[in-house]
Write a structure and sequence with these properties.
Blueprint: H1 4-7, H2 9-30, E1 38-43, E2 49-54, E3 57-59, E4 64-69, E5 75-82, E6 90-103, E7 106-117, E8 126-135, E9 138-142, E10 150-155, H3 160-186, H4 193-219, H5 232-249, H6 261-276, E11 286-288, E12 294-296
Parallel strand pairs: 3-10
Antiparallel strand pairs: 1-2, 2-4, 4-7, 5-6, 5-8, 6-7, 8-9, 8-10, 11-12
């Protein structure tokens, strides 16, 4: 039976590309790395609103500035300690000072109630901290929004143009092509084979070439997934790779065109999107001070 999709293949293909791009765009909006800056507002008893943005990823040895846009007369301190250590919480007082903030390649100087924590020199070393503020006789505590301490992690410097950008582009292309391949596989008389190969190649480049190089620069290891560890990001791309290799298996040789050819491509593409919905770096690398330098998680 002839359907609209088979009668208008070019229009159908365009619509499917638009759907794939929209779904991938949803991921860009949704994606929440636990080490992205933490922004929020704190409403005071008198109705004033205190804004803050805490940096949760810092380059080795650089001090960690913790600041809030507090009203005049406010005082505060930061209670902090190193994660995976035997440290007792330490206190550092906050004071009003001029802080340089970077956004979209521009630097802006603002006055904040801030404290400066000393930099860490260990890759994947982490600080955990609460911000305490007092104003007009009332005490306030700022946490991560879930009642837990805010965590900031240290990493090595990564080459943006030669490593980070190619990694991000390849990974995003792999997801887009994977979603599009799944839609094509579900389409009557769809031809998703080239999309399957394109998704696989971009995944290999993004997840298994540029990804490990970036991780080596950032945390000193090329791979932290199974069997070396439980890094969720590494393990996610491993699951993706297995699913796409299964799809390739059922789309080569005598198996090509069989009942499982398009099904495995659809499964791999749908699973790819589902996997990317898991927050990036949810179980990222961590330096264990108590164990004398072991990288954990």
């Amino acid at each position: 039976m002839k359907t609209w999709m088979t009668a208008h293949p070019k229009m159908t293909s365009l619509i499917l590309w638009i759907i794939a791009i929209t779904i991938a765009g949803f991921y860009v909006v949704y994606e929440n790395d636990p080490y992205d800056p933490l922004s929020g507002e704190l409403e005071l008893n008198d109705g004033q609103v205190v804004e803050y943005e805490f940096i949760r990823s810092r380059v080795l040895d650089e001090p960690l500035v913790v600041g809030i846009d507090a009203p005049d007369g406010a005082t505060g301190y930061v209670e902090y300690w190193r994660v995976n250590s035997d440290d007792e919480p330490q206190i550092i007082d906050m004071e009003f000072t001029t802080v340089e903030l970077e956004s979209m390649g521009k630097t802006e100087e603002v006055e904040l109630l801030a404290a400066e924590l000393p930099g860490l020199s260990e890759m994947a070393g982490k600080y955990a901290y609460f911000v305490h503020m007092e104003f007009d006789g009332q005490e306030y505590v700022i946490d991560d929004g879930r009642g837990e301490a805010i965590v900031s992690r240290y990493r090595g410097d990564m080459p943006m143009l030669t490593v980070v950008l190619p990694h991000v582009i390849c990974i995003m292309l792999s997801m887009l092509l994977g979603i599009r391949a799944a839609l094509e596989a579900l389409r009557p008389n769809g031809k998703p084979i080239w999309m399957m190969w394109a998704a696989l190649v971009t995944l290999l480049l993004g997840g298994f070439v540029f990804g490990p190089i970036m991780q080596k620069y950032a945390f000193g290891v090329l791979w932290a997934g199974v069997p070396m560890g439980w890094d969720l990001t590494d393990n996610k791309v491993t699951v993706e790779l297995v699913l796409w290799l299964i799809a390739v298996f059922f789309n080569t040789g005598s198996r090509k065109g069989g009942v499982w050819s398009n099904r495995t491509i659809a499964i791999a593409g749908i699973a790819t999107f589902a996997i990317y919905m898991i927050p990036h770096s949810l179980l990222g690398s961590g330096y264990d001070y108590s164990a004398g330098g072991a990288v954990t998680e």
